[in-house]
Amino acid sequence: MAALALGQKTRASAGIAAAAARGFCAGGVCSSARRAKGATMPKTTNARSVKKPPTSAGAKAVRPRMSLKEAMAALEKAGSAQTRKTYTRHGAAEPMFGVSFAALKKLLNTIKVDQELAEALWETGNFDARNLAAKVCDPANFPSKVLDAWAATPIAWVWGGYVGQIAAEGPHGKAKAEKWLAAKNEATRAAGWCAVAAMAMIDEATPDTWFARRLAEIEKGIAAASNRHRYLMNNALIAIGCRGAALRKAATAAAKRLGTIEVDHGDTACKTPEAIGRLEKAWERAKSAGFASPAAQERARESMRTRC
């Protein structure tokens, strides 16, 4: 449940039309233009034409932004003890309400994109608020220092690859991945591998040679890596193998040389994906759906960050 779930994971930029999402078009200029269509000239009392005051009839009200207080109240209402137990088993810590991802999706549909609210939610330190923050943020306009701070924060595996996905959807994914992979902070390096995996699936601009170098790093370092990093590096290997035919061949060869990757998932039902089998299934699904690669299929879907 951590870094990415292949065949499910990556792209629509989270920064799409925030103004339109808040209803400015529906309630403003567009509706005025519709009213003007076919309108008759108003009566005049003198030589100059007197404009008729616009009517509000039929106009849609602009949806007010959700405040931090309202968002936190909604999260608390949606929480459950059972979900808190599940998150705790996956390493989440208090404070948290235990909000399911289905409930978070409903809140996302209401809020849409709100970077200011996302940063405020994150600052609460609440696990569920931070999950929601990752969904409503705007990757295209995400402050660089804030993103670094999010990446450096130790957080549960279930939070997974959100921060890496945000970086990959933004304008500086490659730079962030390289910076984070070189960091001393373990949480930051974990975010770096999450970013590599997300980029492999959605970033068409970065050359395959860059991902080939990441494969070499995985082969060289995975055996000595920490438990969590082994899991994330294995996920990154699979994602790189989903990018294209040449990298599929390289990733499969690397997976054969590495053999089984052992990861302790604690008191959870999570399992470490077997790279070769996962790659075969991902490519089979993509080809049967008419896509050139699993990455191409992922790019046609809603972002993993907002759908999962």
In short:
This protein is mostly helical and 308 residues long.
Can you tag this structure with a few keywords?
308 residues, mainly alpha, 0% strand, globular
Helix content: 55-70%
SS-derived structural category: mainly alpha
Largest sheet: none
Q: Tell me what portion of residues adopts beta-strand conformation.
A: under 5%
Number of domains: 1
Shape call? globular
- The pLDDT mean sits at 83
Q: Which runs of at least 5 residues are low in confidence (pLDDT < 50)?
A: 1-59
Give the radius of gyration: 23 Å
Number of helices: 18
Helix and strand element order: HHHHHHHHHHHHHHHHHH
Notes on the protein architecture:
By secondary structure, this protein is mainly α. The chain has one domain. It is built from 18 helices and no strands. Helix 7 (115-123) runs antiparallel to helix 8 (127-136), helix 10 packs across helix 12 (186-202) and helix 13 runs antiparallel to helix 14 (227-241). The longest helix has 17 residues, at 186-202. The radius of gyration is 23 Å and the shape is globular.
How is the secondary structure organized here?
Blueprint (H helix, E strand, L loop, with lengths): L17 H4 L2 H4 L1 H8 L31 H11 L2 H9 L11 H11 L3 H9 L3 H10 L7 H8 L10 H8 L3 H9 L4 H17 L5 H14 L5 H15 L3 H14 L16 H14 L5 H6 L4 H4 L1
